[in-house]
Amino acid sequence: QIQLVESGGGLVQPGGSLKLSCKASGIIFSIYAMRWHRQAPGKQRELVADISSGGSTWYTESVKGRFTISRDNAKNAVYLQMNNLKSEDTAVYYCNALVGSYSYWGQGTQVTVSS
Question: What's the pLDDT tens digit per position in 71-95?
Answer without folding.
Answer: 999 999 999 999 999 999 999 999 9
